[in-house]
Amino acid sequence: MSLDSAQLNRLFPFFVIADADLNIVELGDKLKEICGNKVGESIFDYFTDLHFDEDVKDGVLKNSWITLKQQPVRLNGKWEKIAAQNLLFFAGYGQSFLDEIQRAEPGPGLNPDNSNNNSAQRQLFSVTEYSYHQVIENMRIGLVELDLAGHIVYANSSFCEICGYDLIGIKGKLLSELWAGRIFSEGGDALGYDNITSKVSEIQFLDTKGERKWWLACSSLSFNHEHEQIGSLLINFEITYHKEQKLELMAAKSEAEKAVSSKDMFLANMSHEIRTPMNAIITMANQLAKTNPTVEQDYCVQTIQTASKNLLVIINDILDLSKIEAGKVNLESIGLDISKVLREVIQVIKHKAEKKGLIIDYFQPHHDEIAPVLIGDPYRISQIVLNLLSNAVKFTDKGSVSLKLSLLENFDDAQEIEITVKDTGIGMQPEFVKRLFDNFSQEYESVSRRYGGTGLGMSISKKLVAQMGGYFNIKSEKGKGSEISFVIRLMKGVGEDLPVEEKLVLSDDLFSGKRILIVDDNEMNRLVASTVLLNYGCQIMIAENGQMAIDMVDKDDFDLILMDIQMPVLNGYDTTKLLRKGGFKGPIIALTASAIIGEREKCIAAGMDDYIAKPIKEDLFITVIDKWMVKGAVETVQPEIEVPLYSLDGLYVISKGREDFVTKMIQMFCDQMPSAVSDLNQALENADLPKISTLAHKLKSTIDHLGIVSIQRVIRDIESLSDENAPVSELIPLIAQVKRVIDQVVSDLQTEITRRNQDLAD
């Protein structure tokens, strides 16, 4: 520790230094003004409340105070043992006045009746200065004061606590001795004290235990009263807890995203693997039913059809739930006749109810109460009502099931309606009603075994009703039955809002003279599609993969192509793109077992005209094909998307948001890329294909980092063509394109650098 008197007076204006015999060695200037120069005299003659203890003698700083005998003033500070000089040091940094009860008797050097004298003495002690030192010492922000040579002259408690040091151990040392190999940038790069500027930055620090801490830190110059620089200050604020929380949240988010991705992949694979054999089962069962089977054979066919349809319901439930939870279900907004929609649902369920001997009724309001046309999603409303009716029929062994449509409120432009399903079935316990809408919810395991089902129907229904802006009402009593309804508000429409239904007349020669190419690697799927289509008079050709399809289209003409997606050699997306690029204008319809979120959009984006999910529903299958046979392929016009020339997003990811790093990388790009492109042109002039390949490979990563999308594919083509010893003539336009784009990017980035420098100057 430095005992320079001027420095001590600046930092600790009320300091006291005593020797081993507790005689005063030195006093702060302000104390001298009160006590006089008492060097050599006993400390006990002038001070009380000295609070010596073993901790102080062991060199540990303790918050303490001493009291002046000559006036009722307490000096606040810390005791410290200076072992090297065998001295005791009281770091007095401020004072406070004792209240009337605590004041000591005035000493002989002070007249208690002299109020002017009292006031003068009080002025020697600045309450503001005391408060300042108290704040510095006790604030939760670390502070270190350095002299001009970089030696530590003071560190507050927070800094010592954060770093694990004590003031005695670090006072007088260079800060670089403490921080050597211990501080790092946010990105993990080693730093020195010089790297910490007046700009607040995030740094990492290893404390004395080697534990990583996170700080917000900055530095500034320190001046005396004459405005002369006397050193510098380092200020730091610990954010370790918040940083760890942030990192944990980021890790949790990453894991959640991986889980969602894995779930989507699982659903895609499950859908594909199950729908492929189901496609064959359902379609072949339907074809078999057309062959005038015997009564016994017809019974077997119906059993196959029923079982396969039940399995399809389960798969669709799982996929529906996934879509709804992901917010990817888009509700239709078209005209509908709600009474007709409900009558059609009743017709679907009526057969099941009658087989169980149940009475099924449909009650609707007076014919003029419900608007003839409402706007909504008839398919989803049917799905919800069908689920409610199916459950009612399933859980009712005797009695009745009814469907009721009610008008709750009539507005000028909308109607609020309630659709109610009531049964005399087994009913529900109140506890189960509370969790009726939970995923996979069944009241008892025995219920699941007896009645079957996934327990997803009500969960899906509630989410769909909520998406429509509606809600459910439930009444149920165990052993007596249930009454479940949902309320939705639908806008009123007009007759023109109702979709026009075009009924396709199916005939054996519907596709007579037409040539259809089926592209699918699965023999079962090819057989199913061929069997259905051959009934309508068309000629069928088969391709087992995308490449085979391209070869066949080059040699023959086809009126329509049915395209599978997941195939070896060349998948459906890439096959379609190549067919369109090669000039094929006919309809291409996706025929795939993948029915997950976004699949249709991906197919259309690849250049296909329509999408059919397996298993095939024959009427829909033939209707879609006929539509495109009549219409012909509409040439896919890809929307013109403005792709930016470059993007700095990749640099920000690499630099973790550091603007200085990004600016440096931009400058490097502008400095190095023109010469790199020049080298590429020189290698082209020399027909040096190996060098062209090497240069293209180096340029590839730089182009990727800057997101120069327009030449990402081009630079890879240059590399691969060079490796394949392609003719130089093929490389000339590609390298010219790269040069043209790079020149433009460099020009734009130089403007960007100028702007950044201007912002920094401002």
From TrEMBL:
Membrane topology: Multi-pass membrane protein
Domain spans labelled PAS: 128-165
Pfam families: HATPase_c, HisKA, Hpt, PAS_8, Response_reg
Cellular localisation: Cell membrane
EC number: 2.7.13.3
Tagged with keyword Metal-binding: no
InterPro entries: CheY-like_superfamily, HATPase_C_sf, HATPase_dom, His_kinase_dom, HisK_dim/P_dom, HisK_dim/P_sf, HNOB_dom_associated_sf, HPT_dom_sf
UniProt modified residues of type Phosphohistidine: H697
Positions of the Response regulatory domain: 515-629
UniProt keyword list: ATP-binding, Cell membrane, Membrane, Nucleotide-binding, Phosphoprotein, Transmembrane, Transmembrane helix, Two-component regulatory system
Domain Histidine kinase: 269-492
Stored Gene3D superfamilies: 1.10.287.130, 3.40.50.2300, Haem NO binding associated domain, Histidine kinase-like ATPase, C-terminal domain, HPT domain, PAS domain
Record's keyword annotation contains Transmembrane: yes
UniProt-listed SMART domains: HATPase_c, HisKA, PAS, REC
Sequence ranges assigned to domain HPt in this UniProt record: 658-752
GO MF term set: ATP binding; phosphorelay sensor kinase activity
In-chain residues carrying the UniProt-annotated modification 4-aspartylphosphate: D564
A GO cellular component entry from the record: plasma membrane
Catalyzed reaction equations: ATP + protein L-histidine = ADP + protein N-phospho-L-histidine
Xref: PANTHER family: HYBRID SIGNAL TRANSDUCTION HISTIDINE KINASE J
Full protein name: histidine kinase
Upper taxonomic lineage: Bacteria, Pseudomonadati, Bacteroidota, Sphingobacteriia, Sphingobacteriales
